[in-house]
Specification:
InterPro entries: AIG2-like, AIG2-like_dom, GGCT-like, GGCT-like_sf. By secondary structure, the protein is an alpha+beta fold. It has helices at about 20-25, 40-45, 90-100, 135-140, 140-160; strands spanning about 30, 50-60, 70-85, 105-110, 115-120.
Length: about 160
């Protein structure tokens, strides 16, 4: 069974609803899926923020049905990713608007004692049974996903200007 489908039926259309809090109190963002890739970050915010490898014990990076990007769920596992720091309030707002409504923004502890915010699945029923593979995503989906991110950003910016 393939772990992802070639296209998502819906690409990150609604914000997760955390924009006000993030614009006031931005902290580090733990990323474990597509936001680990510099190409994706550059397509969304025109830069790659400071980042370093990080891990979160008690979490699993799982496939999401009919999506190429993953979800983070509580589990007896350790999620690997990166901790992004130095995001501006505007960048937080863009990333929040970009994220799929399947996510909620939660604060998590990392294995090295630091903490950060992350977009975790609101319910475990939204995830598939398999672990998500960054290597498979990069090999099979990254170029098309980056193009979709750039197209999303153009639409988002046009909507922001119209508001």
């Amino acid at each position: 069974m393939p772990h992802t489908e070639p296209r998502s039926p819906q690409l990150n259309s609604r914000p997760s609803g955390q924009q006000d809090r993030l614009s006031v109190d931005p902290e580090a963002l733990f990323v474990y899926g597509s936001l680990q890739f510099p190409e994706v970050l550059f397509a969304l915010i025109d830069r790659v923020p400071d980042h370093e490898p990080a891990a979160a014990k008690g979490w699993r990076v799982a496939t999401l049905p009919e999506r190429v990007y993953p979800g983070l769920i509580p589990a007896d596992d350790t999620a690997l990713g990166h901790l992004l720091t130095g995001l501006t309030p505007d960048e937080w707002r863009v990333l929040d608007a970009f994220e799929d409504p399947v996510y909620e923004l939660v604060r998590i502890d990392l294995v090295d004692g630091r903490h950060g915010w992350t977009y975790a699945c609101a319910t475990a029923t939204d995830v598939g049974p398999d672990d998500w593979s960054a290597e498979a995503f990069e090999a099979e989906h990254l170029p098309a996903y980056v193009e979709r991110c750039a197209a999303w950003r153009r639409r988002h910016e046009a909507n922001q200007q119209a508001s």
